[in-house]
Every structure is written in C-alpha cells, then in structure tokens.
Amino acid sequence: MTRKDVVLAATTVILLAAYVNAILDQQPSYVKTCKIKEPREIFVNCSTHSVQELFNYIPKGVPEIGLQTLDPLEVPVINILQGGGGPVTVNASLSNVTVKGFGNTKILHNSVDPKTYDFYTKLNLPRLRIDGHYDLLGRILVIPLRGKGTCWFDAKNLEINVKSDVIMEKHDGFHFFNVTKVHVKFSIGGLKLHMGNLFDGIKALEESTNAYLNANWRPVAESLNPILTRTIEDIMLDILRKVFDNIPADFFLGDLDP
Ligand SMILES: *[C@@H]1O[C@H](CO)[C@@H](O)[C@H](O)[C@H]1NC(C)=O
Ligand SMILES: *[C@@H]1O[C@H](CO)[C@@H](O)[C@H](O)[C@H]1NC(C)=O
Ligand SMILES: *[C@@H]1O[C@H](CO)[C@@H](O)[C@H](O)[C@H]1NC(C)=O
Ligand SMILES: *[C@@H]1O[C@H](CO)[C@@H](O)[C@H](O)[C@H]1NC(C)=O
Predict the structure, then answer these.
(1) Atom of ligand 4 nearest to the CA of 245
(2) What is the pTM of this model?
(3) Cβ of 178: how many Cβ atoms within 10 Å?
(4) Tens of pLDDT along 44-76?
(5) Where are the domains of the chain?
(6) Where is 224: in which H helix or E strand?
(7) Whose CA is closest to atom 8 on ligand 4?
(8) What is the 3-state secondary structure (H, E, C) of 96-114?
(9) What is the CATH number assigned to the segment(s) 3-251?
(10) Closest approach atom of ligand 1 to CA 42
C-alpha cells in the first residue's frame, strides 16, 4: 500500500439525518463515571467497562441525542473514489446499505490521555455484514470490474484501533469532548463477498470473478483497506459526535477541574 493510494482514497458517507440534538443535563443510566486522576490501571479498567456499557446500549438508537439505530445501521449512500497507481482503482457507490454487527462490539481497551483528553480505543467485532446496491467501475488486484446490482460483504473478527482527537470545551455549564477527528487502523480475520449482476449479468464471468475474489479475500481486503478505513472513520466520527456533543464529559469523568 503506497502513500499515494491512501491520499487518493476518498469516501463520502451520508448517514440518515438526525432528529433532534439536545444536551442531556441528567446522567443517563448507560453512562458510568470514572475518575481520570485515579491510578492508570484502575482508570483504564473503569473506562474500558464504561465504554462497553455505552456500546451495549447505543446500538438500539438514542433518539434524544439524535443517534439512529446502529444495529442494523442504515446508510443511504457511500461514495468511493480511489485513483490509480495501486492495486485498486475504483469509482463506486453503495446505496441502501445495511450494516449489521455493531450490537456485538467488544471493547478491549479504552484510555483517555490525561493532558489532551484524546481517546485510545481497541475494539473487536465478531462479525460485520454489509448488504446493499452497488454501482462499480474499476479494478481490484488485476481484475477489471464493472457492474451494478445487489452485493454483500461478510467480515469476521475485526480488530479495530481507534484514536479520537479531542478538544475539551466548556459551555452550557458542562465540559464537552469535542471529537474533531478519528484515526482508524483495523484488520479482519476473514471475508466473504458477493456482487450480483457483475459485467451486466454475464453469468460465467460473474461467478468466476466472485469465486476469485473470495479465494483471494486477504489481498482483496488488503487492497480495499484505505477505502474501508476512511468509511469506518466517517461513520465513527458521526456516531462519536452525536454522543459527545450531547452527553457532557462530566458524566464520563467525575473529577475534571472546574
Ligand atoms: C474492573 O472494573 C470492573 C467494573 O467496574 C470491576 O468489576 C473489576 O473488579 C475491575 N477489575 C480490576 C482488576 O480492578
Ligand atoms: C464516478 O462515477 C460517477 C457516476 O457514474 C461519475 O459521475 C463521475 O464522474 C465518476 N468520477 C470519476 C473520477 O471517474
Ligand atoms: C433505495 O431505497 C429507496 C427507498 O426505499 C428506493 O426508492 C431506491 O430505488 C433504492 N435504490 C436502489 C438502488 O435499490
Ligand atoms: C469543535 O472544534 C472545532 C475545531 O476547533 C470547531 O470548529 C467546532 O465548532 C467545535 N464543535 C463544537 C460542537 O463545539
């Protein structure tokens, strides 16, 4: 993966519009408070459990903070454009996308930098299944691809490392984590996929291409990594902003300086 590919990878994720955003002034039951000034290992254990409790709750959706259901997550459009040079050149869009699996998120580690308040989170998703309509023109590995139709991707055992850049702010009588950017690194333990109606439905080509992509899932996943990384970053930033723009940091960290 060259640097150029990463720079050229661009995605646009359009999530469903939020209903209302409103600051919660009472501590919600799904937010467990930790003390950042406690010894490191005690704090990390507490915040890991706290984020796990949050992720046990929020996949059902939290309308009062404008957060849609996350499992299944409905995404109207994902646009993907990645220029030449590397193993992937694609111009694709995915529409009417359904993503299943965020409800089983396992938080393996969460810590908060005591100076910058940046978050470091390590999580595992046993399974992530994406269904949608695709419209694709491009090349993955050595294969030219063209088509539009239904598709699915089924990944297992995703390990995701997330660093969230945070600015601590004060307004409305509370502290807030302003999450400005997320940086994602991830690996997957397996991938099955299917693209229907490839090459406008020339069946023999469609079947042999799908078989080839599945047999070579590891380099396929590797080559799609910059695109998938950007997509996961866009989705996570949207989710984290809805959570932390509306739930005061004081409910997560009980010992912030006034
Ligand atoms: C970690 O936190 C959990 C939940 O608060 C608690 O039950 C457990 O005893 C803690 N473990 C350690 C080693 O402190
Ligand atoms: C990508 O595809 C869309 C829709 O077919 C088209 O409008 C756009 O010009 C394409 N972009 C590039 C860079 O080929
Ligand atoms: C996506 O869903 C909308 C609303 O259900 C529908 O109008 C549209 O035709 C669908 N698009 C595709 C590509 O299936
Ligand atoms: C978060 O910080 C960015 C960059 O400083 C700023 O543009 C934005 O308005 C802030 N958002 C909120 C909700 O305070």
Answers:
(1) 13
(2) 0.86
(3) 15
(4) 999 999 999 999 999 999 988 989 999 999 999
(5) 3-251
(6) helix 217-246
(7) 178
(8) EEEEECHHHCEEEEEEECC
(9) 3.15.10.30
(10) 14
